[in-house]
Amino acid sequence: MALLENPVLNRELLVNLRTNKSFALLAAYQFILACVVYFAWPHEGTTIDLSLGNQRNALLIDTLFLSQFVLTALIAPSFAAGGITGEKERKTYEMLLASPIQPMAIVFGKLVASFTHLAILVFASLPIVMLCLPMGGVSIYEILVQMLVVLVSMTTFCTISLACSSYFARTTASLSISYLIILILSGLTLSVWYLLRDDGQSRLHFMLLGIPGFAVALSVPLVHLIAARMLYPPDVGSEGAQVVDLEQESKEVVGLVLNRDAFPDRLLVPASRVDLMPDHVNPIFDKEMRSEFIGQGTLMLRWVIQISMVLAIILMAACVIINPGYVGHYVCYVVLFNMLVGPVFSAGIVTSERERQTLDLLLTTPFSAIQIWSGKLSAALRVSSVLTSFLLWPLGCGILLRLFPEYYSSIWSLMGYLVIVGLTCLTTCNLGLFCSTMFHKSNVSIIVCYALILGLYALVPAAAMLIPEFSGQSLGGWPPLIASTSPFVVIFRLPLHVFDGGYHPADSGLHFSLYVVCAVIVNVFAALGSLANLSARGRLLRSSQ
Predict the structure, then answer these.
(1) What is the pLDDT of residues 459-488, one digit of tens each?
(2) Contact (CB, 8 A) for 211 and 189
(3) How far apart are the C-alpha atoms of 311 and 330, rounded to whole Å?
(4) Residues of the chain where predicted confidence (pLDDT) is lower than 70
(5) Contact 230, 166 (CB under 8 A)
């Protein structure tokens, strides 16, 4: 029942592998890896070094492994985080629990189905990776070990996402928490892997023993935990939709409690309105803030705050107080946090109306497309920016603890950090809202939004820096300018003159200006696209009446 005759597994495989998304994802995954190998392939007149000391090809293999690991961490939650929440949203959760299928078989079917699709991506990329062997510098055993690590990590990420899916009622909430947890584990794994770059034997032991051992120790208890929750489900009732009483939740919750009448809690979850709405308030904004974001309780918000703050305290101590030269690394963490959280609140803000079949009613109201767009964007931007600002005050505290005069000569760089974080908040929410107007399902909108952000902030700068490295062709000063589309690159371009080892580019102002211009252009096009989609849909509905 668990494997050979598992109806859950059969159904999930048929649904996942026959969708257009699966073929598009496979094609995009293969195309990215093929481009990396193509530009790294020796051009005409180049002497190929077949020795194991070929550092250029070793760098290529490390780049491929890093690319696959990061792509796996980003793609895995999109397949597993909706495994159980999808049943709740389709109102089939109670029917599944009432079936004769054992909970462990259900969990096993969901987990194997999400893992299988990702495993196809890895095995399909094996021929492309094997093309690197003729260039020397790496053995087949190293490639096989890296593939093993990717597969083991993939299983762990799917298990974590499925566990989050069992705790939440919405796929968006499950996705956000999954990405936060996977971010921590991925960062720790890649940090150890990078630190062992000069010790091949220790790195091999870490990849063969450390990662699989930790994966088994984490995945097995999580699988049993998910099965136990399905055996005695605490979230059934009303056709699988969890109804949350916020007052009762605040009394029973363990850990952080959100008080809707206190500051700064009311910035995230304003109290229910008991009076008439003022004339100057946008009704769309008021509705989103007071009902939509907390319709299923505050569990997701509390998890996001607690996980991010624990990481912020650790990184603040390491990057701001102990060694202030790493302030930029802490700001990169803040930007990365917003990249993960921003689309969660914006990429489903219009698709949720479609899924509830209320979008047509909204577009036929007297509100204009600009009012609808501004209300939804303002609500998502407020929650995203408030959560992100919770991570900025530790930076201020760290600066004060290190005595502010030491930072005085770099005050403009610190102000530049705030501008970068603010533009990132606006860009992630704007792109999320644009994707939400383009697609019909929230999970598809979120995945596409993450892909756009990853391409803009990571893929384009990485390509600009790696193509000259592998191709041997100099592009002059273009790679640094193209890389300025990424906030991570621009953060390290800003000078911190008082710190030893700080980066002192003479053209830091140019890179910062290019990032600001690029962010403005992206936001303008995203806003125009969202308004055009909403206006076109509204005109079509009004003309059909």
Answers:
(1) 777 766 666 666 555 555 565 667 778 888
(2) yes
(3) 10
(4) 1-4, 21, 39-58, 134-138, 235-255, 292-297, 319-325, 394-410, 463-481, 496-507, 545
(5) yes
209-257 pLDDT tens trace: 888 888 888 889 999 999 888 888 776 654 444 555 666 666 666 667 7
Using DSSP, state whether 436 is helix, strand or coil: helix
Contact 117/26 with Cβ under 8 angstroms?
no
- CB burial of 232-267 (b: ≥16 within 10 Å; e: otherwise) equals ebebbeeebbbeeeeeebeeeeeeeebebeeeebee
Query: Which of 232, 94, 96, 75 is closest to 150 using CA atoms?
Result: 75
Cβ neighbours around 500 below 10 Å, total:
8
With beta carbons less than 8 A apart as the criterion, state whether 34 and 126 touch: no
Amino acid code (one letter) for 336 = L
Q: Cα-Cα-Cα-Cα dihedral of 115, 116, 119, 124, to 10°?
A: -160
pTM: 0.82
Q: What share of the chain is helix, strand, coil (3-state, %, to 5)?
A: 75, 0, 25
Burial class (CB in 10 A: 0-12, 13-18, 19+), 14: exposed
Angstrom distance (rounded) from CA 141 to CA 138: 8
Is-cis flag, bond preceding 264, omega within 30? yes
Average pLDDT value over all residues in the chain: 78
Closest CA to 444 of 14, 64, 21: 21
Distances (CA, A) of 16 to 82, 104, 119, 215, 409: 12, 21, 13, 25, 55
Portion of the chain with pLDDT greater than 70, in percent:
79
Exposure string of 423-441, with b = 16+ CB inside 10 Å and e = fewer, is: bbbbbbbbbbbbbbbbbeb
Tokens of 512: 């910062």
Q: Which residue has the tokens 């007071």?
A: 290
Distance of CA 497 to the CA centre of its chain: 33
For the beta carbon of residue 134, count every other beta carbon within 10 angstroms: 11
Reference 289, options 380, 374, 389; nearest CA is 380
Alpha helices in 81-139 (DSSP H): 85-89, 93-97, 103-124, 126-130
For 517-539, b/e burial (b = at least 16 CB within 10 A) is ebbeebbeebbebbbebbbebbe
Instruction: Give ∠ CA 319-325-331 in degrees, rounded to 5.
Output: 55
pLDDT tens figures, 146-185: 888 888 888 999 999 999 888 887 777 788 788 888 888 8
| Biggest alpha carbon–alpha carbon distance for the chain | 78
- pLDDT at residue number 498: 46
